[in-house]
Amino acid sequence: MLQTDVAIVGAGPAGLALAVMLARRDSRVTLLECQSEDSLANPEDDGREIALTHKSVRILESLGVWQKLHTDEVSVLQSAQVVDGNSPSSLNFDNRGRGPLGFIVPNAAIRRALYEVACGESNIQLRCDSAVTGTGLGDNRRLLEINGENHLAAALVAAADSRFSEVRRMVGIGADMRDFGRVAVVGRVRTECAHGGIARECFRYGSTLALLPLAEPNISSAVVTISASRGEEVMQYCDTEFAAHVQRESAAALGPVESCGKRHKYPLVAVYAHRFYAERFVLVGDAAVGMHPVTAHGFNLGLAGADTLTRQLDGVTRLYQPARLARALSRYQVQHRLESQPIYSGTNRVVDLFTNDRLPAKLLRKAVLRFSEHFPPVRQAIVHQLTR
Ligand SMILES: Cc1cc2nc3c(=O)[nH]c(=O)nc-3n(C[C@H](O)[C@H](O)[C@H](O)COP(=O)(O)OP(=O)(O)OC[C@H]3O[C@@H](n4cnc5c(N)ncnc54)[C@H](O)[C@@H]3O)c2cc1C
User: Fold this and answer.
1) pTM of the predicted structure, to 2 decimals
2) Going from the N-terminus, what domains does the chain have, and what CATH number goes with each?
3) 372 lines ligand 1 (CB under 6 A)
4) pLDDT tens, residue by residue, 135-146
5) With CB atoms counted within 10 Å of each terminal CB, which end of the chain scores lower, N or C?
């Protein structure tokens, strides 16, 4: 049977980042991914544009991943504007002259850059076309069944197999799931006016639109959030209809709009695992905490969690000392909960408030925004979250 120090299930951005971090601390890592190697080396654009905090950029730089991104893949997020309902005014967030709020990078570019770095690590063995189909415990190891036949034994298994993690379920860890009954339809648009590095979040009644500034000055990513029952209708819009929708919902803030590129649809389901670890087992990335994208924290939390876990494991010897390993995993759980729980609950409350079109909620929305506008500490706290 194959043996390894750490087996990671899922070579998405969280699994790849964790693999590189652990490999650099002398662990032999086996990364199992059900997709083909070609889809990791050349990931297709999936429409997700990932807003990264400064902390995430620092982590990616330290891994040598940031340096692998092309200049036309990175856009600078200078400030953000929030518009409520049919109000003509907006609430603005910026870093008060202390640099950008963050950066925006396509998910496919992050995945490609992480893959390239992982390929350069001699401690990482990547096994593609390998779906984990079962797990159990054996002689001081956790065992994995791959494609229903081969087996692998690892001192620790980390599941990074998405918010709908099958491996989390196999180990018997439950999760709170919030299905918002909505979908996000994402697609690129060209606007007559330059976006100026400003992200615009328009919480209209019945639908929400985010316009995220991309590297080209007139190209933005439009994220249309609507009831799941209307998702297919918006996906089927011709380019002119989609552009008209974006122009209307953005109140033509950037002038006439043209649709450019494929659209993608994502169901909006938030997930929070009941526990982040079990015997010789740990959850990372969306498998631990799957966020609603409105506050752009999912991958940022995944990266922070991988960093916390690596620090707690502190090298390879702890993996083979059951009591010390259990304590390290428990400390990871405490720290990652402290970091993620307030953001998770806060995000779900924002979604509840800003997608509720009944009169009391509409009034509360306006009151919250007015309060934030006239009470700078609230605005500063939000900016701090984005820029830390
Ligand atoms: C529209 C949208 C916008 C977003 N915007 C932002 C943003 O601005 N900022 C931000 O920080 N986050 C954002 N996110 C969230 C971010 O995309 C996710 O947090 C991140 O992609 C999760 O990475 P992951 O590696 O945990 O999981 P995934 O990317 O889901 O990867 C899981 C991997 O596991 C593999 N796998 C699954 N099951 C198995 C198995 N049994 N065996 C082997 N392999 C398996 C899959 O093939 C996949 O490669 C956004 C998400 C969406 C949908």
Assistant:
1) 0.93
2) 2-71+106-177+270-350 (3.50.50.60), 75-105+181-268+357-387 (3.30.9.10)
3) no
4) 999 989 999 999
5) N
